[in-house]
Amino acid sequence: MKPDDDTRLLVAILAQSDAVWLPLRAADAGGRATIYQARLDYTSNGCRWQGDGGAGRDRTADCRRLAALESAGRLTRRGKLKTSHVLLSADADAILRRLCGLASFNQVLPALDWLACLLVAGHGRPAPGGPWVSECELCETAYDHPKAGRILGQLQNDLLPLLAGGLLMSNSDCQGRASYALTAEGDALAQTRITSALADPDAFPPDVPPGNEELTALYYRERAAAREELRTADPDDPAEIGPCPLPCSWPGAAVEGAR
Length: 259
What we know:
- This protein is mainly α.
- It has two domains: 1-102 and 210-243, no CATH class; 103-207, Arc Repressor Mutant, subunit A (Orthogonal Bundle).
- The protein has nine helices and six strands, in the order H-H-E-H-E-E-H-H-E-H-H-E-E-H-H.
- The chain has helices spanning 5-21, 32-45, 59-71, 90-99, 110-120, 135-138, 148-164, 184-195, 213-232; strands spanning 47-50, 75-80, 83-88, 133-134, 168-172, 178-182.
- Helix 1 crosses helix 9.
- The longest helix is centred in the last third of the chain and has 20 residues, at 213-232.
C-alpha cells in the first residue's frame, strides 16, 4: 500500500531528527559546532523542522499536517509556521522505525548491557566524557574488514534511539572513527537492568526485518540532506567550536562507506 502524506511527513521528521545524532565523521569536520548546537537544541526542544516544503512538499500543507498530527498525539511542536521544533511521540517513533527497517528504542536497550560489559572488561578508553568504547569493539569488527562500512553503518543506525534518548553519547577523532559512552542516565539504567536481571547483552544487535521500500528510501534521502545542511550551516554562536575530537592514537583507521 502506498504511504500517505502524513506518514511521509513523519518519516521526514524522523530522518531529520536522526541526522542530528549520527556520529561525527571526517566529512563533518566543518560542521562540528553546528551539529553540537543542534544536539543541545534537540535535548531542550526537539528537532528543528524547516517548513520549506522539502522534497516536493508544500509548506502550507506541511504546517496544517503538523498541527493535525500534534492533535492526534503523534508529535509535539514548538514554534510557528516556517520554523518549528518537533518531537515525535515514543509510539510514533517506534512505528516509523519499523516502517523504515530500523530498530526501535526498546529493541536496542540491550546495547546498554553490551557496552556495560565491555567497560567492566576494561575496553573503555579515558577521555573527557568517557570512558569511551570504540565502534569496532561494540560490533566486534575492524576498520580493515571488507564489510566494515556496512557493519558500522548498521551499528550507528541501531544506536540512534539511545543517543536521541540521552542514554548514550558519541564522539569521534579527526579521522571520523567513532566511539560511544554511557551518559549518567544510561549508566544508571544499565546498572538497574543488571541488578534486576533484565540485562541481555546477547540480544544486541537486534534482528530487524526490512521496512517499506519507499519509506526506507525517503528516510535515507531526507537524512542525508539534513546532515549536509548541518555540515554547511553557520553555528548560531560564532564562538562555538563544538566538542574536542577524541585522540587519534587509538587503534584503527578511518571508516569508508558508513551511512
